[in-house]
Each structure stands twice: as structure tokens, then as C-alpha cells.
């Protein structure tokens, strides 16, 4: 029984198309998931436009933000049943004996491989998932929202685990993409006063960001950063990742403050980090997420404390993947979601 | 009554000479200190060679690593007596109402001015010191050692307060200057396995570093960093501060590890910080020190747990300041100490 | 010029009455404050009913939760002006040279003395306040709310500084008095799911607590603590302070979780702390507050992120102090506020 | 093929004897270990004298501090080979799906069962061990020392993971048993000034403790705690666990300090915890250990930074178990070690 899939087939711009693939065979520690919804990630777009910086096992089914129902269980799988509503983490292949994995930080195991680039992802009907990746989705939480657990977990790791934000703190987020907006939303959940800063072309996204209770700034945030006592903000979250944003972050952050870097960019920095020393500032990289973070995020989504619906720009069928990708790529929507069946 | 002083008189290379200065008049919150010993700091050398990057109030008496006896007390000073043996912190002028000062972090008050560049320092017989800067020196601790409380406090802040180093951790220190060697020494006190890495020209200093129980490496530390599990070291302390050392630090540090940056350098970085994100690494700037750090360091020096004598390359009279500066500048000694009287 | 004051005059039950006192003379580091509002604290009630456990300098003007305008300045006071709207911290007398004070933790200086028991408090028209105790109150924040900065700071210290609460955590607060309710409110600001537990007689207060977005439980919280995964809650905040509540807290808290003890009680415990060891739990005492906490709380009150109006049960004139005390003592209101002028 | 084993066969005082048991059959995730050395733990003595407080699956082979060679591997075991030198963690049975296990804190999984009480332990020739429990022992580390990895890990968790001890801190350890002495040793590794306090009858053990660089006190430690600034010590580690020691700890600890409770005791406390609140003190329970702790301890033992030989009072054959138990029970030795083959 074959199903259609959104396949990235070569390291060339635009090398994504619908193909038919067979139903995966699962191992004894895996389950087979019937995908209900799968979000489009910026990294899916990067593989599509071929300006990504990670190795891809071509051809590969795209998609790593997904949830659905269990339809088959490997013989050693315990604690799960057919029909269970679940979302899946993204670290599809890890070395269980790696020291990072042994500490629960398998997301930092250098040998890991993820869905959508290392192994087949979820932009299709059936996907093979190791049982250790699963998290239960409560009935009251729709899959359209639940499939955003992954980017929420990226933001939760950046804002909660890798930053120290307290009620009354002032936080600046740079870059109103999915991750930036979710970081702003979670910083608000921490009781902070939050502003998000973007370019003039980000107007649509900045309007959406406002729905999460933060201010939206265009261009320069220096004035916002310095108001009250002139020393700067407690935390800057750099969700953009270019040289210029980190340079600004160093100006905006207060002494003994923090900059959290969740955005990437391969280009060299073109300034000195002396302000980091002089201000005794922490610059903290934040990468992906792990089991306890997923549980916290699902709990926030299920209780309604975190409501991601404002960032969902639409739901498309697999065959309309191109439209879904385009809408997001052009910035018309923050997040596109696909529905395989 | 005049005394001689080592005075930096102009923003020009070599503008340091012996001059006579009057005995300072103190305010009601100050004491007058008769200097017993004063260490030469790398920043004194930078002002001498005029490649410093901070504003200097010319002419100014150099020297901010010092201790001695109290000879006069302002009328509002409480808790101190004539004859008390003391060392002095370096933040000579601060805004007590600044939010950083109100939290005990006056070292990060942007308006502060220090001895030896902002106000007259201690390379002379008498120096005016605000009583809030003082720390008692136990009888069993000589002033030759006590005057190194300042650089030890820089290292303590970097290694203990701004890093998280536990027994059994592996730590790499880059740059075998005074601060680098003291960072290595304090990392050993934290129970870590420590190596310090320098250039071939650092041989003398690396030999001294070994006396603090750490390994000395020349050039590349990759192999040392990767031995055991191939993931890298728990912490890299960058006491060099050039672009190249931070780039290496990012290679040597393990996922979820830390780089502490205590070394400065005005030149731009020439690489991307993507490994910081990918490895979820903390890059922490560390600057100067404050009251509780000074107390801990004096306690370590007094108990003998930290013995700084190996780094003291000699003690010179004020009139021999040029020799003391030269020996240190050339790398023949790690630390020169002056004795005004 | 005399003013009336609510004076606690002897270590005997009911020894509180209105007396006339002269306008205080201030020292060179003090300001004179004209009190706009002063909150009634549980400790004022304890001194009234004489079941307090701290030394009192009889006779003493009660009241340590207060704000108003500056009407006079000592000659060394900088940074403040006549007419400034301010609230005052409570540590009226401290030893500036005490090691705790030197670290900004003057609230833990064992020699400190507070308003309302150690020196005259604010249930009167004029109160002498050291300038170091002052915090500016923004125009948009009324004194009725601002005078609650003190109990809010107690709660902020307990919940934010002395606990580690993250979005999605589950928190149980025991005891719906002022501090308990404010702890619940601030735990909600941290993004937690919060329940507060009281007795049947606490019904009025539990209803008020609900307005801060938390659930209200009567009697036993075991079921609430165990729902979801049966392991217990991330944090229990004990704002009651009797032996029985700590015993329950140990049952309700999950392994590796935390109990924060902000409530007092002189009676001995009657159980073993073995569950604390077995579950690897942190039991953290929390006491009062310091400068940065006051700034954060004022910022939360001023921005409206924290709205304390639901707990204010009424505002009385000084001469009606007895009614104000009674209403609060009987549990009819959570917090009574007085208005001297 | 049968082997002799030290078996605890009933919940009655003295119910330990040598019995013959068959060679264990291993599952697909297990290995079979040939025991080289096994330490006697206080809990083995408690089961022998039947004053333990945990459930025991009688009859059970005692012993959970052990190391040896792998002689057989289950078919799914990866990363290990026959002949490998290993030590084993103690959590023989855990629920891999428990939220604590999913975070790497399987030691706090309430369903776990350990060697020596829940399943057969290592006071015999062959013991079945899940591969996930194993840690490699470097060649230069003898099994006599390596078998003490377990109590060292208990101490490391208490002192390093569950306390915050920095160079120059002052630490008091109460109770000079194995855990107390190892806590003192590791606190010294953290750069602290350490004293250990015991009773007059602890003289032999206190002398051994001194070999780890700490002072030994008999009876009262108040004077030691208060010297220097009269505020108390930074950390008290209670390795005794009776009501009286925690009461003293509360007197000896400084404001904002910490008490770490690693000792147990079923008797009720008979005092109020008000000083914990008033001093803003952290009372932290510490229980067992997990994977990264074992790796750190093995590294400390292998590098010689931590040398446990002073506490090993002797090595006995299995048939001399009674003598080994007696020597330790009477306090004549700190730690007895058995050698099965």
C-alpha cells in the first residue's frame, strides 16, 4: 500500500515533489504513526530552496513537526496502544550510549539524525517512529495545535531552560518568525514585559506577535531597551541569527544580563565581543529540546495557557504543499500546516 | 609633605615617569592608606605603551593592586582603625544609587572610575581610599601576596562565579598570563583536571603554571580536549581574547558546556557563532569582582589553599619601576610587584 | 507639631491605642515621609494580640507597609527631592558593614531592626526613613496599591528568588492569607498551574484567591497534586507554617521538587524528614526581601501585570484602626489599609 | 554450577548466612558480571540487624557496591565486551517510562528496586546486571577502590549536585561514617575549608577523616562555625540524620546558607523550623546518584584526585563476611570490602 509524500530528492534548489512511497516497516522498538497534521518548518523551506547547512539523505520525506494516531506497535513497545493520540520528537536516530544521551540530552548527541533530513519525515500518511520519541496528546488538544509542539519546544528551551527570565524582567526578541514569536509568547508566560523587533517587511508577523501580549517594534529597539533606568534589558533573544542582530543585542542588554541565541547564520561576525566581557553578559546558545520540555509544552497547550492558534496561517492538503510552502516563505503566514489524509 | 609616584602623564607611548605628588587630603568617608606593596597589572603596561582602550585622566598615578596600613580616617568612617592592615578594591568612584550598585554589582556600574586611570592609584606612598573599598588582611598574610588579591579576584569571578566547574570536570585555559594562570589555579581548587595552553614563546610562564597542578600545552589543545569521550571539555576559559582563541574554544568545548571569556581584544571576530547554538554552549563574559569575591580570595590566600608566590617574579622599589615593567612586559616574569617605602 | 499614631505600648494583649507623637527629627542620611497609605500586616495583628515571637521596643508606632511623599531631606541625601512619591523598605536599621549587608542581603543581617517593632512605623502622619530604603512610585500607581509592595516582595522573594518555577509547572500554595494569595498570584505570573488550599473557614479568602487565576481547594490537595502522572507537584509553598502543613507538603511534592517555607510557627515538628531525603527534595526558607525585589514588584504593580486590588478589603482612617484590625483578624478581609491624613 | 553467596533470608535480626545459589540466567539486555570486589554498606548491616526501613525480597543476596569483569552478554547488549572491567550502578529495576527515568533521574523513580534488597546483589561470584547500569573501569584503578564508586557517588550527589560549595567556603559535615567522610573529602575537592564533627566514640573514624584534609571536631562545632565573622558556615552536611543534628545544623549555618541532608532517621523532629525561614536557609535532601555522577566519580578515582584507600579497613573473603560486618558495625573500620573469588 503506497501513499503520497512530499519528497526532497536532490541538493538543488526546488528539488521537492510529490512521490509515492510504500508503507514503512517498523522495528521492534518502533510504532507506526498515521499522520494527522504536520507543520512546515523553516528548515523544510531551506531544504526546498537548497540554502540549508546540514547533510540530507536524499531522497527524503520532509516534515518533522507532526502528530497523529498509533496504528501499529513493535513487539517490544510498552506503554502505548493502537489508536493513541501522540506527537513525536524529532531525534529519530540517536546513540543511546553517547554521554549526552545518557544524561537525557540526546538532542546534543552529535551522531543524532532527525526526521525530514536524516530519515523519512511526516509529510505523508504513515511514518515510522521509535517509541521513545512519543508523547501523549490529551483529547482536548487538536492535532493542528499539537503538531506545533516542536517549535514551541525550541522556544521553551531557549526561553525557560537556557535563559533566566523572571516576572517583571524586560525581554527583547529579535526576529518575528515562528521561533521568535513563540519565544516572545513564552517570555510573556514567564511574567516578563516583552517587545519583539523586526523589519518593515515583517509587518504582518509583528501584528500576529502582538496577539501574544508583546509590543512590536520596527527597526531599532534602543529606546525601548533603555527606558526606565537606561541600563538595558534583562534578556535579548536573538531569533534572527545574523551578525548585525547580535551586535545590537550587545548594546541593548544590561550589565549582568543575558543574550540567548536561537537563530543561526553561517556568516562571520564583524565586531569584537568586548562588550560581553565588560558588561559581564551571558551569551547562551540554545538548540532543540528533549523529553521534559515536550511534556511541559504539551501541558501548556492542553491547559490553554499557551494558545498557538494565532500563528497558524492555514491548513493545506499534501498535494497543495507548494502553496503552503510559498505562503510561509513569502512571510504571508507565520506557520503553514499540512493535513496528509 | 610630598612623595614620589609613578605617573602616567599623557596619551603617548612611554609617557610614564617618577614625579613628586603631595599627600592626598581625604574626605569624611575615606581613609588614607600607606602603601606596602603594589602589583603591576597588564593594564598599567597598556597605559605605558599607550595601547589601552579606556579613558585616562592624565596625569594619573598608576597602580590598582595594592595593600598597606591605614594612617588616617575620615570622620564618618566606622569599623576601621589606624594601623589596620588592608587591601583595597579598585572601584574608587561609583554611583551608590545606580541599580547595579544597589545589588552589590557596583563593578558593573557604567559610571565607575578606578584607581590608576580614573583617580590616582597606589604606585606612591599614600593613597586616598573610600572606606567601602577596604578588606582586612590577616596578620599571617604578607602584603606581597595580599596585593595580588585583585587579579585573584578577577580569576575567582571568572572561574567560580561566572562558570560552573565541578570536581572531575575538565577545563582548558587559554593564555598563560597572570589572569590565565590564576584561572587555572582556581579551576584546580574546584577539583577540575586543568590544562593551560600557550604559544612556544610562553614557555617560562607555562612552567610556572605547572606549579599550580595543571598540564601545560603548546599550540593546539584539541587532542587533550577530546581524550576520554571525544566530546570536548566541560569549560574553556579564554584569557587571551583574540578572535582565534574563541574560535578554538568553540571546537574544544563539549555540547552543553561553557566558554568563559575574561580576555579582551578590540579586533572583530571572523567566524560564525553557529557552533555555539548547535552545541547549546554558554559563552559568559566575566568582568572584575565585588565585595564577597574579595573576602573569599583573602580567605583562600590566608589559609594557604591558594598560594600565589610562584607567579611573583620580583619586588622592586618605585624608582625601579621601569625594570619591573620591562620584566613583565617581556614575559620574563608573570607578575612584578613594587614596594613604595 | 504633634500627630496621632497607632501605638503598641506594652507586651500585653490589646496594648494598642491612639497616641499623639511629635514630628520626627531626621538625620543627615534620612528623609521625612508624609504617609499616604499604610497596610496592616499579620505581624501588626500579632503584636496587638501579643502572640508575636520577636522583640519589640515599646512603645512603638505600628506599620511597615507604607508609602507617601517626601517632605524633608537630610543634608547628605542625593537623588531624591521634596514631593517625590515613594514607598519604603522595612529594614530601618542595619549594620552596613555586616557581611550580609555588603552582599545586598541586609534583610538577613541579624542586627537589623524594622519599622513597627524596632523603630517607629508608619501608622501616623510623618515617619523618618533612611534614604537607602526608598523606591520611587510611578504616577500611575496609587498609594493604596503601592503600600502593598512589601507583602508582594515577601511573595516575590519566596516564589521567584527562592523557588524555581517554570511555565507549565504545577504549584500548590498552602494558606490563603495575604502572603499565600500573593504567592499564588506570582506563581501564576511565572506561567504555572496553581492551586491554593485552605480550611472551610477560609472560604471568603479562597474566593478572592480565585480572582488571581488559581484553583481553590478545601482541606486535602492530594488528588490535585497527583493528577496527571501521580508523582506530585513541582513546588509546594507553605504559607501556613504549622507542622501539619509541612508534613502534607512532603506528600504532595514530586521527587526532585521543592517546598518553599514562607510561613512561621514556633511549635515543634512531629514527624521525620526522611521523605525529603528519599525524594531528593529542596526545602527552602524564605525571609523578607531586598532592593532588586522591590524594584521588580513596583514594576509589576505599575505595569498592571500584578493587580493587588482584589485583596484590599477596605481603607480606614487611623482613628478607625480597631475596625481595620478586626476585619482582617476575623478573616473578613484579606488586607486592611489605613489612611493617616 | 553453584556459588556461595551472603544471603539475607528473613526479616529477623541476624538472618544472614552463606548459601549456595545457581549461576543467574541473564536476559537480552543484561550482562553477567563476575564480581571482583564488593563493599559492605551500612544498609547491608541494617538488613543484618533488621533495623532497616525498606522492603526486602527475602531471601536476597546482599551487596550493591561492586565491580568485576563481564563474562556473558545478552544478545541486545551493545558497546560492551567479554572481559571488560566494570562497576555497576544500583538501580537494578526501573520503569523506563517513568517521568523521572525519562529525565535521567531514574534514581528517583518510586518503582525502582536495587541490588541487595529488591533483587540479588553482589556478595557472590556471579551477578546479573542490566547493561544500562555499567560503567567502564580504567586499568589503573583497582577493583578494591572502584567498588567504592557507589558511596562516593552518594557523597558526590550530596556535595556537588545538591549543594553549592565554592573555593573558600566553610563546610561542616556531621557524622564520620563512610558517607560523612566521603562528603568531607569531596567538599575539600571543591576548595572548601572543611570540618567533620562526631562523638567521642568516633575517634578512629575522625582520625581517618583527617587524612582527607579536614579538621576533626568532637561534640560541639559552634565555635568552629562562628569563627571569622560570627555568622556561621556556608554549608552543613548532615550525614547523621537524627533530630539533634539537624537542630544543631540550623544553629551553625549562616544566613542564606545551606544544609544538605543525606543522613536518614525515622524518628520525629522535636523542634520548629523557624530558623530555616528566618535565615532564608536551603535544606536539601540528597538521595543516591545517576549516570553522569558515576562517570565523574570514576574519573576522580582514576586520576587519583580522590583517593579512597584511607577508608578501606580491610578485604575479606565471602566466608569471612561475619568478621567484615562486625568490624564495620563496631566502628573499628570505616569500610569493609569482600572478595568473592
UniProtKB/TrEMBL annotation, chains A, B, C, D:
Superkingdom: Bacteria
Protein name: Zinc-binding dehydrogenase
Species the sequence originates in: Meishania litoralis
Amino acid at each position: 500500500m503506497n501513499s503520497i509524500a512530499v519528497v526532497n530528492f536532490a541538493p538543488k534548489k526546488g528539488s521537492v515533489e510529490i512521490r509515492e512511497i510504500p508503507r514503512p516497516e517498523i522495528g521492534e522498538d518502533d510504532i507506526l504513526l498515521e499522520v494527522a497534521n504536520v507543520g512546515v518548518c523553516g528548515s523544510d523551506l531551506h531544504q526546498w530552496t537548497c540554502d540549508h547547512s546540514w547533510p540530507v539523505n536524499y531522497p527524503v520525506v520532509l516534515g518533522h513537526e507532526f502528530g497523529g494516531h498509533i496504528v501499529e506497535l513493535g513487539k517490544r513497545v510498552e506503554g502505548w496502544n493502537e489508536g493513541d493520540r501522540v506527537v513525536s520528537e524529532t531525534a529519530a536516530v540517536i546513540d543511546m550510549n553517547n554521554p549526552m544521551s545518557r544524561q537525557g540530552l540526546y538532542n546534543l548527541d552529535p551522531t543524532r539524525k532527525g526526521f525530514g533530513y536524516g530519515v523519512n519525515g511526516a509529510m505523508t500518511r504513515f511514518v515510522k517512529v521509535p517509541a521513545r520519541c512519543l508523547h501523549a496528546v490529551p483529547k482536548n488538544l487538536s492535532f493542528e495545535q499539537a503538531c506545533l509542539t516542536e517549535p514551541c519546544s525550541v522556544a521553551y528551551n531557549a526561553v525557560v531552560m537556557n535563559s533566566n527570565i523572571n516576572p517583571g524582567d524586560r525581554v527583547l526578541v529579535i526576529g518575528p518568525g515562528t521561533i521568535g514569536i513563540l519565544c516572545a509568547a513564552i517570555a510573556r508566560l514567564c511574567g516578563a514585559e516583552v517587545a519583539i523587533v523586526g523589519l518593515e517587511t515583517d509587518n504582518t508577523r509583528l501584528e500576529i506577535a502582538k496577539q501574544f501580549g508583546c509590543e512590536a517594534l520596527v527597526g531599532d529597539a534602543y529606546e525601548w531597551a533603555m527606558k526606565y533606568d537606561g541600563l538595558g534589558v534583562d534578556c535579548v533573544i536573538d531569533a534572527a541569527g545574523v551578525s548585525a542582530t547580535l551586535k545590537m543585542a550587545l548594546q541593548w542588554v544590561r550589565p549582568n544580563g543575558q543574550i540567548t541565541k536561537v537563530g543561526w547564520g553561517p556568516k562571520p561576525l564583524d565586531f569584537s565581543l568586548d562588550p560581553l566581557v565588560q558588561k559581564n553578559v551571558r551569551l547562551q546558545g540554545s538548540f532543540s529540546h528533549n523529553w521534559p520540555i515536550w511534556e511541559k509544552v504539551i501541558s501548556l497547550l492542553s491547559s490553554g495557557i499557551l494558545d498557538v492558534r494565532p500563528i497558524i496561517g492555514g491548513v493545506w492538503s499534501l498535494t497543495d504543499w507548494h502553496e503552503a510552502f510559498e505562503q510561509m516563505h513569502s512571510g504571508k503566514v507565520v506557520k503553514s500546516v499540512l493535513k496528509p489524509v
